[in-house]
């Protein structure tokens, strides 16, 4: 099968389109014929050697999330059959024609493939953070970097929980945030004053998806660290703030969010879909921070 691989750390140029052996489903696994794979900033960090603790031995096939059709079912797997359409997390790398998965959920027939592949990481991350913060009816949530793919899902899910969301973003993204139900405020000098103006009764929780150095300001606004979670700022520990990383298997819950997306109640802004051979271009654009939405690969 065709797959993207690399055999050393480095820039996008280390990525190669190769013919490799197909994986086969072992106990507890299914094999997917990948239709669409998500490209995430983490993929580039792993490729650069910045996350060696999550890098498997070389050669590496990058990519975590995918949507595809089950074409093999391993021993002990129940509730899924060959021919089923699913979305979830791969264990052999998503930038490939076939990938193995153990954590996945059903894809509704009326959900497009690109949107399906864009959901797993964004949904799991934001549900994990909102649960940790206990965001619910009547809360006011300050969400830093609210126009990013994962954070924008967080905006929508927080709104459905009955929260008011104050979202920080560049002015060019303010209309987008309004369309998701957030109150936008601009980054930069004077941010704290703008947040106070947008939320005169104060804020109840902070979700930092930007990692832009706003934790100390957020602590001041909130009056403590108990309801602040970041997924992006590694100064969290020294400030007494929770840094949240990938959690427990989530696939059993993924179906309900896929259904929301199919019904038009949850969306991800799709920027571009690339053919598999253009994985290097996709990763370079992802790492730039200026993709303008989710990037995908089509094997």
Automatic annotation (TrEMBL):
Q: Where is the Enoyl reductase (ER) domain?
A: 10-297
InterPro entries given in the database record? ADH-like_N (IPR013154), ER (IPR020843), GroES-like_sf (IPR011032), NAD(P)-bd_dom_sf (IPR036291), Zinc-ADH_QOR/CCCR (IPR051603)
The molecular function GO annotations come to:
oxidoreductase activity
**Record keywords: NADP included?**
yes
Keywords attached to this Swiss-Prot or TrEMBL record, sorted alphabetically, are: NADP
Pfam families the record matches: ADH_N, ADH_zinc_N_2
The answer, when asked if NADP is one of the entry's keywords, is yes
Q: What is this protein called?
A: NADP-dependent oxidoreductase
Native organism: Amycolatopsis eburnea
